[in-house]
Please model this.
Amino acid sequence: GIDCQGGSRMCCRQEFFVDFREIGWQDWIIQPEGYAMNFCTGQCPLHVAGMPGIAASFHTAVFNLLKANAAAGTARGGSCCVPTIRRPLSLLYYDKDSNIVKTDIPDMVVEACGCS
Amino acid sequence: TLRADSQCPACGGPTLDLESQRELLHDFAKRSILDKLHLRQRPTLGRPVSRSALRTALQRLRELSQEALLEDDIGQEYEIISFAETGLSNINQIRLDFHFPDRNSGGMEIQQASLMLFMQLPPNSTCTVNVKVLMLRPHDTNLTLIAQHLLEVDASGWHQIFLGPEAQAACSQGHLTLQLVPEGQRAHRSDILGGTSHRPFVVARVRVGGKHRVRRR
Model:
Protein backbone atom coordinates (compact mmCIF):
# COMPACT_ATOMS: atom_id res chain seq x y z
CA GLY A 1 0.00 0.00 0.00
CA ILE A 2 0.97 3.62 -0.54
CA ASP A 3 0.75 6.37 2.07
CA CYS A 4 -0.69 9.67 0.89
CA GLN A 5 1.92 12.38 0.34
CA GLY A 6 1.61 15.94 -0.91
CA GLY A 7 -0.40 16.23 -4.04
CA SER A 8 -0.70 12.54 -4.77
CA ARG A 9 -4.07 11.73 -6.31
CA MET A 10 -3.69 7.99 -6.65
CA CYS A 11 -5.30 5.57 -4.22
CA CYS A 12 -3.41 5.84 -0.92
CA ARG A 13 -3.74 5.55 2.85
CA GLN A 14 -4.41 8.80 4.68
CA GLU A 15 -3.32 8.73 8.31
CA PHE A 16 -5.95 9.84 10.80
CA PHE A 17 -5.58 9.57 14.57
CA VAL A 18 -8.67 9.55 16.77
CA ASP A 19 -7.78 11.02 20.16
CA PHE A 20 -10.22 9.71 22.80
CA ARG A 21 -9.64 12.85 24.86
CA GLU A 22 -10.72 15.00 21.94
CA ILE A 23 -14.03 13.15 21.58
CA GLY A 24 -14.59 13.06 25.36
CA TRP A 25 -14.25 9.30 25.77
CA GLN A 26 -11.15 9.25 27.97
CA ASP A 27 -13.28 8.63 31.10
CA TRP A 28 -14.54 5.19 30.04
CA ILE A 29 -11.76 3.99 27.73
CA ILE A 30 -8.76 3.18 29.93
CA GLN A 31 -6.34 2.25 27.18
CA PRO A 32 -5.25 3.23 24.59
CA GLU A 33 -5.46 7.04 24.57
CA GLY A 34 -6.55 7.00 20.95
CA TYR A 35 -6.10 4.99 17.80
CA ALA A 36 -4.87 5.36 14.25
CA MET A 37 -8.09 4.80 12.36
CA ASN A 38 -6.72 5.96 8.96
CA PHE A 39 -8.76 5.86 5.76
CA CYS A 40 -8.36 5.34 2.02
CA THR A 41 -8.61 8.03 -0.59
CA GLY A 42 -7.54 8.65 -4.15
CA GLN A 43 -8.19 7.65 -7.70
CA CYS A 44 -8.45 4.11 -8.99
CA PRO A 45 -8.04 4.15 -12.76
CA LEU A 46 -9.15 1.00 -14.51
CA HIS A 47 -5.63 -0.22 -15.27
CA VAL A 48 -4.75 -0.15 -11.55
CA ALA A 49 -7.57 -2.46 -10.51
CA GLY A 50 -6.35 -5.97 -9.97
CA MET A 51 -2.64 -5.14 -10.14
CA PRO A 52 -0.47 -7.50 -8.08
CA GLY A 53 0.27 -6.03 -4.69
CA ILE A 54 -2.69 -3.70 -4.86
CA ALA A 55 -5.54 -6.16 -5.22
CA ALA A 56 -6.70 -7.85 -2.04
CA SER A 57 -6.32 -11.37 -3.43
CA PHE A 58 -5.97 -13.46 -6.57
CA HIS A 59 -9.75 -13.84 -6.68
CA THR A 60 -10.14 -10.09 -6.52
CA ALA A 61 -7.71 -9.74 -9.40
CA VAL A 62 -9.67 -12.19 -11.55
CA PHE A 63 -12.92 -10.52 -10.62
CA ASN A 64 -11.51 -7.11 -11.50
CA LEU A 65 -10.29 -8.38 -14.85
CA LEU A 66 -13.80 -9.56 -15.66
CA LYS A 67 -15.23 -6.29 -14.40
CA ALA A 68 -12.71 -4.29 -16.41
CA ASN A 69 -13.67 -6.20 -19.57
CA ALA A 70 -17.34 -5.59 -18.87
CA ALA A 71 -16.71 -1.91 -18.22
CA ALA A 72 -14.46 -1.35 -21.24
CA GLY A 73 -15.45 1.82 -23.00
CA THR A 74 -16.86 3.57 -19.95
CA ALA A 75 -14.88 6.42 -18.45
CA ARG A 76 -14.83 5.57 -14.76
CA GLY A 77 -15.06 1.80 -14.49
CA GLY A 78 -16.12 0.52 -11.06
CA SER A 79 -12.92 0.37 -9.06
CA CYS A 80 -12.80 1.96 -5.63
CA CYS A 81 -9.96 2.83 -3.27
CA VAL A 82 -10.63 0.58 -0.27
CA PRO A 83 -8.77 -0.90 2.71
CA THR A 84 -6.93 -4.08 1.78
CA ILE A 85 -5.28 -4.75 5.14
CA ARG A 86 -6.77 -3.98 8.52
CA ARG A 87 -5.68 -4.89 11.99
CA PRO A 88 -7.51 -5.13 15.31
CA LEU A 89 -7.62 -2.54 18.04
CA SER A 90 -6.99 -3.69 21.61
CA LEU A 91 -9.24 -1.84 23.99
CA LEU A 92 -9.52 -1.72 27.76
CA TYR A 93 -12.64 0.02 29.01
CA TYR A 94 -15.25 0.32 31.75
CA ASP A 95 -18.72 -1.01 30.98
CA LYS A 96 -21.88 0.44 32.54
CA ASP A 97 -21.45 -1.78 35.64
CA SER A 98 -17.92 -0.38 36.12
CA ASN A 99 -16.44 -3.74 35.15
CA ILE A 100 -13.17 -3.59 33.26
CA VAL A 101 -13.36 -5.15 29.83
CA LYS A 102 -10.44 -6.06 27.61
CA THR A 103 -11.07 -7.00 24.01
CA ASP A 104 -9.60 -6.91 20.54
CA ILE A 105 -11.95 -5.27 18.08
CA PRO A 106 -11.25 -6.68 14.63
CA ASP A 107 -10.69 -4.62 11.47
CA MET A 108 -10.39 -1.22 13.13
CA VAL A 109 -7.04 0.11 11.94
CA VAL A 110 -6.51 0.58 8.20
CA GLU A 111 -3.01 -0.66 7.41
CA ALA A 112 -3.03 -0.49 3.62
CA CYS A 113 -5.27 0.63 0.78
CA GLY A 114 -5.72 -0.62 -2.75
CA CYS A 115 -8.09 -0.58 -5.68
CA SER A 116 -10.93 -3.06 -5.39
CA THR B 1 -20.66 21.77 4.12
CA LEU B 2 -19.88 20.73 0.59
CA ARG B 3 -17.01 22.18 -1.36
CA ALA B 4 -18.26 23.09 -4.77
CA ASP B 5 -14.89 23.22 -6.50
CA SER B 6 -13.69 19.68 -5.94
CA GLN B 7 -14.78 16.10 -6.14
CA CYS B 8 -13.98 13.04 -4.10
CA PRO B 9 -11.34 11.31 -6.22
CA ALA B 10 -12.46 7.80 -5.28
CA CYS B 11 -16.22 7.95 -5.66
CA GLY B 12 -16.75 10.95 -7.86
CA GLY B 13 -19.11 12.68 -5.41
CA PRO B 14 -18.62 16.09 -3.81
CA THR B 15 -16.18 16.26 -0.89
CA LEU B 16 -16.48 17.91 2.52
CA ASP B 17 -14.38 20.71 3.93
CA LEU B 18 -11.62 19.66 6.34
CA GLU B 19 -13.48 20.43 9.56
CA SER B 20 -16.63 18.65 8.43
CA GLN B 21 -14.52 15.73 7.27
CA ARG B 22 -12.89 15.57 10.70
CA GLU B 23 -16.28 15.56 12.43
CA LEU B 24 -17.53 12.89 10.07
CA LEU B 25 -14.52 10.68 10.76
CA HIS B 26 -14.91 11.15 14.51
CA ASP B 27 -18.59 10.20 14.27
CA PHE B 28 -17.67 7.21 12.16
CA ALA B 29 -15.00 6.14 14.68
CA LYS B 30 -17.47 6.45 17.58
CA ARG B 31 -20.20 4.53 15.79
CA SER B 32 -17.75 1.87 14.67
CA ILE B 33 -16.43 1.26 18.20
CA LEU B 34 -19.90 1.19 19.77
CA ASP B 35 -21.26 -1.16 17.09
CA LYS B 36 -18.40 -3.59 17.47
CA LEU B 37 -18.72 -3.57 21.25
CA HIS B 38 -22.48 -4.17 20.87
CA LEU B 39 -23.26 -0.96 22.75
CA ARG B 40 -26.05 1.43 21.88
CA GLN B 41 -24.36 4.32 23.62
CA ARG B 42 -21.20 4.98 25.56
CA PRO B 43 -21.35 3.64 29.13
CA THR B 44 -22.05 6.10 31.93
CA LEU B 45 -19.96 5.18 34.93
CA GLY B 46 -22.03 4.75 38.06
CA ARG B 47 -19.72 2.97 40.49
CA PRO B 48 -16.15 4.19 40.17
CA VAL B 49 -13.34 1.72 40.91
CA SER B 50 -10.35 2.81 42.97
CA ARG B 51 -7.11 3.19 41.04
CA SER B 52 -5.31 0.74 43.34
CA ALA B 53 -7.94 -1.96 42.73
CA LEU B 54 -7.73 -1.28 39.00
CA ARG B 55 -3.93 -1.54 39.01
CA THR B 56 -3.92 -4.79 40.99
CA ALA B 57 -6.61 -6.38 38.83
CA LEU B 58 -4.82 -5.43 35.63
CA GLN B 59 -1.59 -6.94 36.87
CA ARG B 60 -3.46 -10.18 37.57
CA LEU B 61 -5.19 -10.05 34.20
CA ARG B 62 -1.86 -9.69 32.42
CA GLU B 63 -0.50 -12.73 34.21
CA LEU B 64 -3.63 -14.71 33.33
CA SER B 65 -3.52 -13.76 29.67
CA GLN B 66 0.06 -15.01 29.46
CA GLU B 67 -1.13 -18.36 30.80
CA ALA B 68 -4.10 -18.59 28.45
CA LEU B 69 -3.92 -21.03 25.57
CA LEU B 70 -4.17 -19.77 22.03
CA GLU B 71 -7.15 -21.07 20.13
CA ASP B 72 -7.75 -21.19 16.42
CA ASP B 73 -11.20 -20.38 15.11
CA ILE B 74 -11.88 -17.62 17.60
CA GLY B 75 -14.42 -14.90 17.30
CA GLN B 76 -14.16 -11.57 19.07
CA GLU B 77 -13.14 -12.30 22.64
CA TYR B 78 -13.57 -10.24 25.74
CA GLU B 79 -12.03 -10.48 29.16
CA ILE B 80 -14.16 -8.86 31.83
CA ILE B 81 -13.06 -7.97 35.33
CA SER B 82 -16.02 -7.59 37.66
CA PHE B 83 -15.28 -6.25 41.14
CA ALA B 84 -17.23 -7.68 44.06
CA GLU B 85 -19.86 -5.83 45.95
CA THR B 86 -20.17 -7.15 49.46
CA GLY B 87 -23.72 -8.04 50.38
CA LEU B 88 -25.27 -9.62 53.46
CA SER B 89 -22.27 -10.77 55.47
CA ASN B 90 -21.53 -11.77 59.03
CA ILE B 91 -18.57 -13.14 60.94
CA ASN B 92 -19.07 -16.65 59.55
CA GLN B 93 -19.70 -15.87 55.92
CA ILE B 94 -19.13 -13.24 53.27
CA ARG B 95 -21.45 -12.65 50.37
CA LEU B 96 -20.04 -11.27 47.13
CA ASP B 97 -22.18 -9.97 44.27
CA PHE B 98 -20.92 -9.53 40.73
CA HIS B 99 -22.80 -7.78 37.94
CA PHE B 100 -22.27 -8.62 34.30
CA PRO B 101 -23.93 -7.14 31.24
CA ASP B 102 -26.73 -9.42 30.05
CA ARG B 103 -25.48 -10.30 26.60
CA ASN B 104 -27.55 -13.34 25.78
CA SER B 105 -29.28 -11.40 23.04
CA GLY B 106 -25.93 -10.63 21.42
CA GLY B 107 -24.98 -14.31 21.28
CA MET B 108 -22.19 -13.96 23.83
CA GLU B 109 -20.91 -16.99 25.65
CA ILE B 110 -18.97 -17.06 28.93
CA GLN B 111 -16.18 -19.53 28.32
CA GLN B 112 -14.39 -19.35 31.62
CA ALA B 113 -14.85 -17.57 34.92
CA SER B 114 -12.51 -17.52 37.86
CA LEU B 115 -12.60 -15.81 41.22
CA MET B 116 -9.51 -13.95 42.39
CA LEU B 117 -9.30 -13.72 46.13
CA PHE B 118 -6.64 -12.12 48.29
CA MET B 119 -6.14 -13.75 51.67
CA GLN B 120 -4.01 -12.51 54.50
CA LEU B 121 -2.94 -15.27 56.88
CA PRO B 122 -0.60 -15.28 59.86
CA PRO B 123 2.72 -17.05 59.19
CA ASN B 124 2.69 -20.87 59.28
CA SER B 125 -1.08 -21.12 59.22
CA THR B 126 -3.57 -22.59 56.77
CA CYS B 127 -7.20 -21.96 56.01
CA THR B 128 -9.95 -23.54 53.95
CA VAL B 129 -12.62 -21.42 52.31
CA ASN B 130 -15.82 -22.95 51.03
CA VAL B 131 -16.92 -20.96 47.98
CA LYS B 132 -20.64 -21.45 47.35
CA VAL B 133 -22.22 -20.45 44.06
CA LEU B 134 -25.75 -19.21 44.64
CA MET B 135 -28.44 -18.48 42.10
CA LEU B 136 -31.90 -17.01 42.12
CA ARG B 137 -34.07 -19.49 40.27
CA PRO B 138 -37.19 -18.34 38.39
CA HIS B 139 -40.31 -18.10 40.57
CA ASP B 140 -38.20 -18.36 43.73
CA THR B 141 -37.34 -15.59 46.17
CA ASN B 142 -34.49 -17.42 47.93
CA LEU B 143 -31.02 -18.05 46.64
CA THR B 144 -30.29 -21.68 45.82
CA LEU B 145 -26.93 -23.38 46.16
CA ILE B 146 -25.93 -24.68 42.73
CA ALA B 147 -22.24 -25.48 43.19
CA GLN B 148 -19.42 -25.18 45.68
CA HIS B 149 -15.63 -25.23 45.59
CA LEU B 150 -13.09 -25.66 48.35
CA LEU B 151 -10.05 -23.45 48.41
CA GLU B 152 -7.07 -24.53 50.50
CA VAL B 153 -4.92 -21.57 51.44
CA ASP B 154 -1.48 -22.05 52.97
CA ALA B 155 0.05 -18.63 52.38
CA SER B 156 -0.94 -15.01 52.10
CA GLY B 157 -1.49 -13.64 48.62
CA TRP B 158 -3.81 -13.84 45.66
CA HIS B 159 -5.59 -17.11 45.02
CA GLN B 160 -7.53 -18.19 41.97
CA ILE B 161 -10.55 -20.50 41.86
CA PHE B 162 -11.93 -21.63 38.53
CA LEU B 163 -15.69 -21.48 38.73
CA GLY B 164 -17.66 -24.16 36.92
CA PRO B 165 -20.38 -24.07 34.26
CA GLU B 166 -23.05 -23.18 36.83
CA ALA B 167 -21.26 -19.96 37.70
CA GLN B 168 -20.61 -19.25 34.02
CA ALA B 169 -24.33 -19.57 33.37
CA ALA B 170 -25.04 -17.14 36.20
CA CYS B 171 -22.54 -14.66 34.73
CA SER B 172 -24.25 -14.99 31.34
CA GLN B 173 -27.54 -14.06 32.96
CA GLY B 174 -25.98 -10.92 34.38
CA HIS B 175 -25.56 -11.68 38.07
CA LEU B 176 -23.32 -13.97 40.06
CA THR B 177 -23.60 -14.41 43.81
CA LEU B 178 -20.87 -16.15 45.80
CA GLN B 179 -20.86 -16.95 49.47
CA LEU B 180 -17.50 -17.46 51.14
CA VAL B 181 -17.54 -19.54 54.27
CA PRO B 182 -14.11 -19.68 55.96
CA GLU B 183 -13.61 -22.95 57.79
CA GLY B 184 -11.36 -23.27 60.81
CA GLN B 185 -10.37 -20.82 63.50
CA ARG B 186 -7.91 -18.67 61.65
CA ALA B 187 -10.08 -17.14 58.96
CA HIS B 188 -11.78 -13.84 59.58
CA ARG B 189 -13.67 -11.45 57.42
CA SER B 190 -10.74 -9.00 57.45
CA ASP B 191 -8.44 -11.77 56.18
CA ILE B 192 -10.42 -11.89 52.94
CA LEU B 193 -11.73 -8.37 52.51
CA GLY B 194 -8.44 -6.56 53.10
CA GLY B 195 -7.95 -3.05 51.75
CA THR B 196 -9.39 -1.42 48.66
CA SER B 197 -6.51 -2.66 46.53
CA HIS B 198 -7.33 -6.25 47.51
CA ARG B 199 -10.97 -6.21 46.49
CA PRO B 200 -12.06 -9.66 45.23
CA PHE B 201 -12.92 -9.87 41.55
CA VAL B 202 -14.09 -12.31 38.91
CA VAL B 203 -12.30 -12.60 35.59
CA ALA B 204 -14.57 -13.88 32.82
CA ARG B 205 -13.56 -14.84 29.31
CA VAL B 206 -16.37 -14.16 26.86
CA ARG B 207 -16.73 -14.96 23.18
CA VAL B 208 -19.14 -13.32 20.80
CA GLY B 209 -21.48 -15.38 18.66
CA GLY B 210 -20.66 -18.70 20.30
CA LYS B 211 -24.20 -19.99 20.15
CA HIS B 212 -25.04 -19.07 16.61
CA ARG B 213 -21.82 -19.67 14.74
CA VAL B 214 -21.71 -22.44 12.18
CA ARG B 215 -18.53 -24.27 11.31
CA ARG B 216 -18.09 -25.21 7.63
CA ARG B 217 -16.01 -28.22 6.69
